[in-house]
Design a protein that fits this description.
With 391 residues, this protein is an alpha+beta fold. The chain folds into three domains: 85 residues, Acyl-CoA dehydrogenase/oxidase, N-terminal domain (Butyryl-Coa Dehydrogenase, subunit A, domain 1, Orthogonal Bundle); 109 residues, Butyryl-CoA Dehydrogenase, subunit A, domain 2; 136 residues, Butyryl-CoA Dehydrogenase, subunit A, domain 3 (Up-down Bundle), CATH 1.20.140.10. The protein contains twelve helices and eight strands. A hairpin with a 5-residue loop joins β6 and β7. α4 packs across α6 and α7 runs parallel beside α9. The longest helix has 29 residues. The chain is globular. The two termini are 34 Å apart. About 2% of the residues have low confidence.
Length: 391
């Protein structure tokens, strides 16, 4: 059976509108810049904030959300188109609030939580971060030990989170805590919404080997979080968290960005005759096919959503394959360029690929870890997709 993805005329017109908007509103070289909110300069961060508000004014920040929460009730396919064009242009966006916190609150939150947070996220007024991983609980997230003890109408939180993106800029945190230490590890976990300005919250930067501040660790000492900030049922936060993670893993933006880098590599090869060898051309063709495959896997996730289904192992397939293709593109780029491929941004002369390849190469290990390790993704595919036994 042959499956062919086609977009409707309306969808293609929407893609043109989005692409024209990005070309008009973004500087020509913006797609070459760092786009993480926690690594940009103050000037760039101010520009990003202004751009996010322009998206909010158009209703594009929360395209797929219901109108009652500030969205446009766009189809999943239109949301995919927007995300793909956004990744290709590396445009600033709504971050974890739009992608993860908002949908999780919509699915599992109370009416008060929806009223308080969803419109603020849709308007670009709230910045969110994620408090899941701990020093001893990464891939085995259900082993987390941050404790929450009920005291009247509040939970008192003590513990530590790590590998937190953008926590020093965030207003709110999606926080997983253990509320029943005697329950099996996947039970006894509660999903809380924590105000990052709460007394007892300390955020410390984690500077990586690239010299960038991409992560933080969060310490919580006797932090009080109202019981009314529980999302879903107490002691059943694991099931809320899986909703959050599925939204995190199903994006196409990173795949579109990798495709753009591949286009630049092809142009570089065309301009350098010594690189137009059969070996390099074959490698490039293989990567091009792999990149298109990863794009179609992401399309499949969105198509399933458009059919009212909840993709789970399909999102893991998209994530693990897309991450490995990104890493392969970067490895080829560095090896192809040679010694000059070691030149970073700001180096004298004119570094190939605007000096981005060395940083990308040093960061490729993280591609298979962030948002869920490749090993965990394969376990999900095996058990939930193929029906294989857990042991």
């Amino acid at each position: 059976m042959t499956v062919e993805y086609r977009f409707s005329t309306e969808d293609e017109a929407f893609r043109t509108d989005v692409r024209n908007f990005f070309q008009t509103e973004l500087p020509a070289d913006h797609w070459r810049m760092q786009n993480d909110r926690d690594t940009v300069s103050r000037q760039e961060d101010a520009f990003n904030g202004q751009f996010v508000h322009k998206l909010a004014d158009r209703g594009w920040l929360t395209l797929h959300w219901p109108k009652e929460f500030g969205g446009m009730e766009a189809s999943p396919m239109q949301q995919l188109i927007f995300n793909e064009e956004s990744g290709y242009s590396r445009a600033p966006g709504g971050g974890m609030g739009v992608q993860m916190a908002g949908p999780s609150i919509m699915h599992h939150g109370t009416d008060d939580q929806k009223a308080k947070h969803l419109s603020a996220i849709a308007n670009g007024e709230e910045v969110w971060c994620q408090g899941f991983s701990e020093p001893g609980s990464g891939s085995d997230l259900a082993s987390l030990q941050t404790r929450a003890v009920l005291d009247g109408d509040d939970y008192i939180i003590n513990g530590q989170k790590i590998w937190n993106s953008g926590g020093h800029l965030a207003d709110w945190c999606m926080l997983l805590v253990r509320t029943d230490p005697d329950a099996p590890k996947h039970r006894g976990i509660t999903y809380l919404l924590m105000d990052m300005k709460s007394p007892g919250v300390t955020v410390r930067p984690l500077t990586n080997m690239l010299g960038s501040h991409a992560f933080n660790e969060i310490f919580m000492e006797d932090v009080r979080v109202p019981r009314s900030n529980v999302v879903g049922e107490e002691n059943r936060g694991w099931y809320v968290a899986t909703t959050t993670l599925d939204y995190e893993r199903s994006g196409i933006a990173r795949i579109a960005w990798g495709g753009r880098v591949l286009e630049e590599m092809a142009a570089y090869i065309r301009d350098h005759e010594e690189l137009r060898t059969p070996r390099i051309r074959t490698q490039l063709a293989d990567l091009w096919i792999a990149s298109e495959t990863s794009r179609l896997l992401a399309y499949r996730v969105t198509w399933l959503q458009s059919q009212g289904q909840v993709p789970n192992y399909e999102a893991s397939m998209s994530k693990v394959f897309g991450s490995e293709v990104q890493a392969a593109i970067t490895r080829m780029g560095v090896n192809m360029i040679g010694l000059s491929g070691q030149l970073r941004r700001g180096s004298a002369g004119d570094p190939p690929f605007w000096g981005a390849m060395p940083d990308a190469y040093m960061g490729i290990t993280s591609y298979s870890i962030a948002s869920g390790t490749s090993e965990i993704m394969r376990n999900i595919i095996a058990t939930r997709g193929l029906g294989l036994p857990r042991n």
